[in-house]
Amino acid sequence: MPRRDLPPPPPPAHLRAWLDVSAVRADRARFLGELGRRSLGFGRLLLLWAVSAVFALGWSFVGMALMAIETHDPFAYLFGLIFAVLGVGVLIPAGFWFAWGAKRDRQVRRLLCAWAELDRDPPVDAAVRAPGRSLVWLLASFALGGLGLWVTFGSAAAARPGGDTYGEVAYTMGLGMILWITALLGLGKAGAHYRWALRVFGGAAGGAAGGAAGGAAGGAAGGAAGGSGEPSGTGGR
Each residue of 145-183: b (16+ CB within 10 Å) or e? Predict the structure, then answer.
């Protein structure tokens, strides 16, 4: 897993008065872009699926161990033990990898919130909202979740006594569960980002639009008053 350093947090409030405003806004735009890609980029989606694939590999070894044990063959017991050790050897590092990624995601989220609340810049804020990336996460997770549910419940419904062993059913259902749990994580991440973007940028966008509309209306009223030749103040009296 890449270990690139994260961007620094925004400067404290008592130091911002001494800093160049344009430099702070440039840092905000650059860091928000980087944090947005780390939070909801396509690479993060592929990384989530890669962790899921490692879990699926580990569970495959465990499933082969279960199926080998069910044969009641002494040699199969030995192979089952080997497969079980391989499965645990893959699942434990995958669990640590997943925990490290979840911790890094929380750090990225805190920095993203801190830099987003520092100032307002409509073009930069629109890029951070990233509706296209959110939609990709949403659709991809829906598809993966549908596949996982079909594998899980389809294998259970199609199992027949005497035709399928318990190990085979457990193996197939476990793979399906890994798929739809991964899909739930992706859906939750996309939904959380969407709600956060509405909460942080929605009001500001509305206020900016309202201010622009008010300014336009005031300018139009002033232009109409000037066109009609009426004085706009008391200085002419």
Answer: beebeebbeebeeeeeeeeeeebbbbbbbbbbbbbbebb
Contact (Cβ atoms closer than 8 angstroms) between residue 112 and residue 130 = no
**Burial level of 143, CB count in 10 A (0-12/13-18/19+)?**
exposed
Start-to-end CA span in the chain (Å): 76
10-residue mean pLDDT profile of the chain (237 residues): values are 71 79 88 90 92 95 89 83 94 94 92 88 86 92 94 80 75 92 94 89 47 38 38 37
Alpha carbon 84 to chain centroid, angstroms: 33
Look up residue 31 and give its amino acid.
F
Nearest alpha carbon to residue 107 among 198, 11, 6: 6
Structural tokens at position 34: 């980087």
No. of helices (H) and no. of strands (E), the chain: 8, 0
The residue type found at 21 is: V
